[in-house]
Write a structure and sequence with these properties.
By secondary structure, the protein is α/β, with parallel strands linked by helices. The protein folds into four domains: 148 residues, 3-Layer(aba) Sandwich (Rossmann fold), CATH 3.40.50; 134 residues, Hect, E3 ligase catalytic domain fold; 112 residues, no CATH class; 59 residues. It has 17 helices and 15 strands. It has a five-stranded mixed β-sheet, sandwiched between helices. The protein has a three-stranded mixed β-sheet with strand order 8-10-9. It has a three-stranded mixed β-sheet with strand order 11-14-15. A hairpin with a 3-residue loop joins strand 14 and strand 15. Helix 7 packs across helix 8, helix 11 packs across helix 15 and helix 14 runs antiparallel to helix 15. The longest helix is centred in the N-terminal third of the chain and has 35 residues. The chain starts with a helix and ends with a strand.
Length: 523
């Protein structure tokens, strides 16, 4: 019997002989993109490639019609490479190198594999044969140009999209129009584009907003309403309108009749707005466009909004304040985990355990993590106990919630500060109006003086308007209902649930033996 390594060697040799005897073909590869109307047809590419065959050579044709060369995920290209691996391809002929690939990375990966099988690539247009050194050099140069051209095309398309999105209110397209709208081609300001037109489902959107803005309503209530009343249920199911989809729809600026209040709301968020406040006419909706790696920006569209600004803003407030108890796995030995800090050195506090002398009872203590730092507290264990702190913090949370409830009940009372700001704005507007009338008749130095006064007053008015907006937005009603229920059954909550609720109401709890407990609320 032969040694094992001899048997393996003999089998390998036999396999090589079978491959050598296998019939070889010349592969002809042709490709054309769907939008590639200016390039040669598939038939012309094949006919041109066949002219390079010798009399004794037979060809196998691989055609990817209507397929881009952005990657190698092409049906016929993959079949050709499979035949290469089977050892039945001697060489590959293409009309032009960019038919084969536009990516240097893809081509080099394929080239390495082709070299392993002794298969070269020949391009008729560039007259390059990769079996020669000169051919390999020229191949690399041409593919670099092809890849640059492809990147340039992508860049031009992206630039064109951004230009249209920032300069027009057209819908920029997509697989489907937005829910409640259909796309319609129109000519506006001499430019043709797609405008969103309300369809039969626009009323569904309006009903969703009307239901959700109610204080005691929820996303589930919106779904239940349609199901229970059998109103356009098919419309919802058609677009898989689950609670997640409804939530996105209720946040979308697309549906709002954008006016000055909406403009100021967006300003308060610090987002990028393409248009000036004058474009927010209370009729048209907004597009929120995204740019890769950059913040979103907002543009007034040509389409009509469906939801009045007061309703839309009320829904945005409610969604911000819609509180849910998150899952939390970190709270085990105290419901204040993650909230406590040393009132002296600002270091975190952790719970440790100790026993009494008889070891019959275990106590919880606070350990100051700052004790191990050079600038931290020297005292490692605090005298004040977690039990005491938790009792103090719980009482504070109850009192804080009561304050919020009272504030909510008094929300309709006039705010003197807001009224004063509003009066000042009206006063400055009158002054500006009077100065503008004088500017019209002024000339020379007087014109410059009056114009400077107008600019100064305009700046003051803008500052007051910002203050007014910030104040009125801040004074909006806070929805305390999600807090009232769990707080009313506090003793029945788990440690994790208490911790989650505390993290909603509190920002940090400072603890020290010197100053006791100092609480900073989250709102």
């Amino acid at each position: 019997m032969l040694p094992m390594y001899d048997i393996i060697r003999d089998v390998s040799s036999a396999s090589d002989m079978e491959v050598d005897k296998m019939k070889k073909y010349v592969a002809i590869y042709a490709r054309r993109s769907v939008s590639d109307n200016r390039s040669l047809s598939i038939e012309t590419q094949i006919d041109e490639c066949k002219k390079l065959l010798n009399k004794e050579e037979e060809s196998k044709v691989y055609i990817d019609n209507g397929v881009s060369a952005k990657n190698l995920n092409r049906p016929e290209f993959k079949r050709m490479m499979s035949d290469v691996r089977e050892g039945i391809i001697s060489r590959i002929i293409v009309k032009k190198f960019d038919r084969f690939s536009r990516s240097m990375k893809d081509f080099f990966n394929v080239s390495d594999e082709l070299m392993e099988y002794g298969v070269s690539v020949i391009s008729l247009t560039e007259q390059i044969d990769t079996s020669t050194s000169a051919g390999k050099f020229m191949r690399n140069t041409i593919l670099n140009v092809a890849e640059w051209e492809r990147d340039t095309i992508v860049s031009r398309v992206t630039d064109a999209y951004v230009t249209r999105a920032t300069t027009t209110g057209f819908w920029q397209g997509g697989r489907n129009p937005y829910y409640g709208y259909d796309g319609e081609r129109q000519i506006i300001n001499g430019v043709i584009g797609s405008v969103l037109i309300p369809n039969e489902f626009a009323d569904v959107v309006k009903t969703m907003y009307d239901i959700y803005q109610s204080q005691d309503s929820s996303l589930k209530a919106v779904m239940d309403y349609f199901i229970e009343n059998n109103i356009n249920v098919n419309a919802i199911e058609k677009r898989n309108m689950d609670r997640s989809q409804i939530s996105k729809l209720l946040k979308s600026p697309l549906y709002v009749k954008a006016d000055a209040d909406v403009y100021n709301y967006l300003v308060s968020l610090g987002v990028e707005i393409i248009d000036e406040i004058e474009a927010f006419d209370g009729v048209h909706g907004l597009f929120r466009h995204g740019r890769k790696g950059e913040p979103d920006y907002y543009k007034v569209g040509y389409h009509e909004g469906l939801i009045d600004s007061e309703t839309w803003l009320a829904v945005q407030d409610k969604k911000k304040q819609n509180i849910t108890i998150p899952k939390n796995t970190g709270a085990k030995n105290s419901w204040l985990v993650g909230l406590t800090k040393c009132g002296l050195c600002d270091s975190g506090l952790v719970i440790t355990y100790g026993w009494n002398k008889a070891r019959t009872k275990q106590w919880r203590y606070y350990r100051d993590c700052g004790a191990s730092k050079s600038k931290g507290c020297k005292k490692e264990r605090l005298d004040i106990r977690p039990d005491e702190v938790e009792e103090i913090v719980y009482k504070y949370m109850v009192e804080r919630l009561n304050e919020l409830v009272i504030a909510k009940d008094e929300k309709n009372k006039p705010d003197k500060e807001v009224e004063k700001i509003k009066a000042n704005i009206i006063k400055i507007k009158d002054e500006i109006s009077k100065l503008v009338d004088k500017v019209a008749d002024a000339d020379g130095e007087m014109f410059n003086i009056l114009n400077a006064k107008v600019n100064k007053l305009s700046a003051q008015k803008l500052t007051l308007e910002d203050q007014f907006w910030a104040k009125t937005r801040k004074e909006k009603e806070f929805d305390t209902v999600p807090l009232e229920d769990p707080m009313s059954r506090w003793d029945g909550l788990s440690v994790k649930e208490k911790n989650a609720l505390a993290k909603i109401m509190l920002e940090v709890v400072y603890i020290s033996d010197e100053h006791g407990v100092q609480i900073k609320p989250a709102f």
